């Protein structure tokens, strides 16, 4: 074997190692962008994709993709071939292409993360690796070993390193799976799109860096030889990815409605740039690669926004990155590719037609086959986990992998159910979770003390305190309320609040207005209560409104004012009787205020003085005794009679009593 061939084999093996790093990139990216309770499951799927790909691709996939071509549609050789004893070049191509195959399969993992059964997912991976990817790959890349040419390649379709063959295929399969499986629990509630945060942005960024390293081999190794094209291919690849990250960072505010984390955009923007340049990186200029990478980000962000609007829950945004950017990159071959480098002999419109045909045909194949297979799998063994398992997390439900954090969450759930404020969490020293448990225990200690003090206050307070929900049903009843109304709390809780009021009172109106009879929120109002023995009494009621677990809750503080009202009524009656008495006695009575101004004359005083109450009211008492007009001065007559002994005028602080003699 010539020295040049050995160098090419070495380059291909080295590129394979770089592409293998992309598998680590997928693992880190998906684990970082999903929740911690599913991180182990995501990692297991990525590792399983790699292991299954190597074996199944050797058994079936490689032969279907690169074996002797049958009319350009399918390969017919290299099944179960001996990797160690075969032509080293064939083995090198197998190693390189098995990495590509694993990449296509793993894209699906990110799309449907956090909700899929592990074993059902492995069946889907087998179908992708053994059938979907190899067949469509044969249509485009069959000539790599000189065993024939695929029918799409014969028509001039160009996909240098796999924008369509690898990335769009993975995206189409992911889309089919997503349509069958549906969104994660809680992602969409009515018209609202809930934000599901990533667990580890740093880990996701490490994954992106692995991708950047891996794409050097992904695109650079696709020459299948160490040629003078390699440096330019690598430079175009890195340029498009870098521009993609920058444009995504700048454009994200115009597309992100805060239903995804902001740091998503540069991560996925970089990957979208890599995906888009992959189809034509060997045939474009640096400026072309910049444009291709920039436009890919706009398409990616717009597609991600549109998917949320139609309620498609792609956990890591893989469909916009791999499918949409892959389609754009494949079209960009015709828009920007150098015809001489492409070597298809087609003009612009002919090349564009070939690119569109390849996108449509490969997409239809990948989506249709995967959708049918997924439907069949879903009938035999459900792809989706139960709601309970999804909420618990796939680390535990699928792999039985318990962590300190899972144990902590389980303990907190148990505390929530038993409502025992005296129970405490186990503290594992020297760990972050242990510190959280210690902090929780301290909070519970303080809460227990506060609750004990509150209960003592509520128990000992003389005013009745009751709470009820928006439906008017009683929720709590303190001891003072028991004593005031004559009900035991366990007998009255759950019954409507109107039983505590006189039945003549209006019943509870619509809870939204929160008016009980004529009583309003945060105002004290008098009402007529009714005890258990049907005895009615006066009470003051003060209503306040709060919220418990997103439900409205209302509190009424009630004070028994029956004795107070009865005393006031008695005093009022006494006052009325006194006024009647004063009005009817024969002696004249004049009352004044502290400043000597008249405020009352009884009938006798009006007769004696000649003054009407409405005329004398507010006048100084001296004006009643003395007047400037003798002809109309009964007050002077009063004084004259007093001097003649016909009347006695007695003055106190605020009252004048005229005692007429004989």
Overview of this structure, please?
With 662 residues, the protein is α+β, with helices and mostly antiparallel strands. The protein is 59% helix and 10% strand. The protein has 24 helices and 13 strands. Strand 7 (524-530) and strand 8 form a beta hairpin. Helix 7 (201-220) runs parallel beside helix 9, helix 8 (230-255) runs parallel beside helix 10 (286-309) and helix 9 packs across helix 10. It is elongated. The relative contact order is 0.07. The model is unreliable at 505-515, 627-636 and 638-648 (pLDDT under 50).
Query: How is the largest sheet built, in terms of strand order?
Result: 6-5-9-8-7
Helix content, binned percent: 55-70%
Mean pLDDT: 84
Main sheet specs: 5 strands, antiparallel
DSSP E strands, number: 13
Summed up:
Helices cover 59% and strands 10% of the residues. With 662 residues, the chain is an alpha+beta fold.
Q: What does the secondary structure layout of this molecule look like, with pairings?
A:
Layout: H1 3-33, H2 39-66, E1 69-70, E2 74-75, H3 88-111, H4 118-141, H5 151-154, H6 163-181, E3 188-189, E4 192-193, H7 201-220, H8 230-255, H9 264-278, H10 286-309, H11 318-336, H12 339-342, H13 348-380, H14 387-392, H15 394-399, H16 404-418, H17 432-460, E5 464-469, E6 474-477, H18 479-485, H19 489-492, E7 524-530, E8 536-548, E9 551-560, H20 562-584, E10 588-592, E11 598-601, H21 603-609, H22 613-616, H23 621-625, H24 634-644, E12 647-651, E13 655-660
Antiparallel strand pairs: 1-2, 3-4, 5-6, 5-9, 7-8, 8-9, 10-11, 10-13, 12-13
Helix pairs in contact: 1-2, 1-3, 1-7, 2-3, 2-4, 3-4, 3-6, 4-6, 4-13, 6-11, 6-13, 7-8, 7-9, 8-9, 8-10, 9-10, 9-11, 10-11, 11-13
């Amino acid at each position: 074997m010539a020295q040049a061939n050995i160098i090419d084999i070495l380059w291909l093996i080295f590129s394979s190692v770089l592409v293998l790093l992309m598998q680590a990139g997928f693992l880190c990216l998906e684990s970082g962008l999903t929740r911690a309770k599913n991180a182990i499951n995501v990692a297991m799927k990525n590792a399983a994709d790699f292991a299954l790909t190597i074996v199944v691709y050797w058994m079936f996939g490689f032969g279907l993709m690169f074996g002797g071509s049958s009319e350009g549609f399918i390969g017919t050789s290299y099944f179960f071939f001996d990797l160690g004893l075969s032509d080293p070049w064939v083995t090198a191509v197998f190693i390189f292409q098995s990495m590509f195959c694993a990449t296509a399969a793993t894209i699906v993992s990110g799309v449907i993360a956090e909700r899929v059964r592990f074993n059902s997912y492995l069946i889907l991976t087998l179908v992708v690796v053994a059938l979907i990817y190899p067949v469509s790959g044969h249509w485009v890349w069959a000539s790599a070993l000189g065993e024939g040419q695929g029918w799409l390649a014969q028509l001039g379709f160009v996909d240098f390193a796999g924008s369509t063959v690898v990335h769009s295929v993975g995206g189409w399969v992911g889309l089919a799976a997503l349509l069958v499986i549906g969104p994660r629990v809680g992602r969409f509630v009515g018209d609202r799109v809930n934000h599901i945060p990533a667990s580890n942005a740093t880990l996701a960024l490490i994954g992106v860096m692995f991708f950047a390293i891996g794409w050097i081999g992904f695109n650079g190794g696709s020459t299948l030889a160490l040629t003078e094209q390699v440096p330019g291919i690598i430079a175009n690849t890195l340029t498009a990815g870098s521009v993609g990250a920058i444009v995504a960072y700048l454009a994200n505010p115009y597309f992100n409605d805060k239903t995804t984390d902001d740091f998503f955009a540069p991560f996925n923007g970089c990957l979208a740039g890599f995906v888009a340049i992959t189809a034509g990186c060997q045939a474009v200029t640096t400026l072309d690669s910049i444009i291709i990478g920039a436009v890919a980000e706009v398409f990616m962000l717009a597609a991600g926004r549109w998917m949320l609007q139609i309620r498609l829950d792609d956990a890591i945004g893989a469909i916009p990155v791999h499918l949409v950017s892959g389609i754009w990159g494949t079209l960009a071959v015709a828009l920007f590719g150098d015809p001489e480098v492409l070597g298809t002999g087609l003009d612009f419109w002919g090349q564009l037609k070939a690119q569109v045909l390849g996108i449509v045909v490969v997409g239809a194949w990948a989506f249709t086959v995967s959708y049918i297979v997924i439907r069949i799998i879903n009938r035999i063994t459900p792809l989706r986990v139960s709601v309970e398992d999804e909420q618990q997390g796939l680390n535990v439900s699928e792999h039985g992998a318990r962590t300190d954090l899972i144990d902590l969450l389980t303990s907190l759930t148990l505390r929530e159910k038993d409502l025992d404020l005296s129970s405490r969490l186990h503290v594992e020293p020297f760990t972050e979770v242990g510190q959280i448990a210690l902090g929780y225990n301290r909070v519970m200690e303080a809460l227990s003390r506060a609750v004990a003090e509150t209960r003592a206050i509520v128990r000992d307070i003389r005013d009745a305190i009751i709470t009820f929900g928006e439906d008017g049903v009683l929720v709590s009843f303190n001891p003072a309320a028991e004593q005031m109304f004559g009900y035991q709390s366990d007998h009255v809780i759950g019954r409507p609040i109107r039983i505590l009021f006189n039945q003549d009172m209006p019943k509870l109106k619509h809870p939204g207005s929160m008016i009980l009879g004529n009583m309003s929120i945060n105002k004290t109002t008098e009402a007529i209560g009714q005890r258990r023995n049907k005895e009615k009494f006066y009470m003051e009621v003060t209503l306040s409104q709060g919220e418990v677990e997103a439900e409205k809750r209302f509190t009424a503080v009630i004070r028994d004012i029956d004795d107070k009202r009865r005393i006031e009524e008695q005093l009022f009656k006494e006052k009325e009787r006194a006024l009647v008495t004063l009005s009817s006695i024969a002696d004249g009575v004049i009352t004044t205020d502290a400043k000597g101004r008249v405020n009352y004359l009884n009938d006798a005083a009006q007769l004696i003085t000649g003054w009407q109450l409405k005329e004398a009211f507010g006048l100084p008492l001296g004006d009643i005794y003395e007047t400037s007009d003798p002809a109309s001065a009964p007050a002077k007559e009063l004084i004259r009679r007093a001097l003649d002994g016909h009347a006695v005028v007695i003055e106190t602080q605020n009252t004048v009593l005229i005692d007429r003699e004989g």
